[in-house]
Amino acid sequence: MFDLFVEALVIGAGVLAALGAGTGVAGWLVVRKVRRSHIIERTRDRGMLAARAYAPDRLTREPARLIGDLKRSSRATHLALAEAAAQRRPVGDLPRAAAEIDQAAASLETLLRAADREPNRALKQEWTTDLAAQARALDELSADLRRCLLQTSRSIDTLQLEQATNRLRTEISAMATWRDSYGNRQTW
To answer: Any idea what the Cα angle at residue 69 is, between residues 67 and 70, rounded to 5°?
Structure first.
């Protein structure tokens, strides 16, 4: 009986050791994946950026706000291009121009992050002011691109509306002619 008890205890300890080792390895893999995850890193970066954009100190707030503005402008441009492409509207070389604007925005974002890390407040103020002017110019270029897409969209919508109106007028005229010719006949 004692041998049976010892055997059960050894088997139970082995199973627990195997489960513990499996759980430890699985936990280690999960932690490793989480630490290397770019999604979590991006989310953390966005959260820090949003928090810094509402900081009470203007020199801390301004670079973060400018980076956020650049990202929102880029996202709006890509959404407008995707929508135009989905509706099969002509976009010409605008996607390439948007890519060039994105490259300039990425470079400007790097400079804004460097300015944000600058310890000298006077230099940080000067640098941020210069970069803010560039960020506004880049944002205006992006807005011009979206404005161009919108104007093209309006002209196509107007053309489609005119075509539909002409088609409807033709159908109404044909139905009136048919009614005048055949519709007033009396059945014999």
So the answer is: 65
pTM over 0.70: no
Q: What is the DSSP annotation of the chain?
A: -HHHHHHHHHHHHHHHHHHHHHHHHHHHHHHHHHHH-HHHHHHHHHHHHHHHHT-SSHHHHHHHHHHHHHHHHHHHHHHHHHHHHHTT---TTHHHHHHHHHHHHHHHHHHHHHHHH---HHHHHHHHHHHHHHHHHHHHHHHHHHHHHHHHHHHHHHHHHHHHHHHHHHHHHHHHHHIIIIITPPP-
| pLDDT one-digit tens code per residue, 97-156 | 999 999 999 999 999 999 988 899 999 999 999 999 999 999 999 999 998 888 877 666
Determine the distance from the C-alpha atom of residue 111 to the mean position of all C-alpha atoms in its chain, rounded to a whole number. Answer: 22
Measure the CA–CA gap between 77 and 144, rounded to whole angstroms: 10
What's 57-172's CATH class?
mainly alpha
Q: Please classify residue 63 by burial: count the beta carbons closer than 10 Å to its beta carbon, then call 0-12 exposed, 13-18 middle and 19+ buried.
A: buried
How far apart, in whole angstroms, are the C-alpha atoms of residue 17 and residue 12? 8
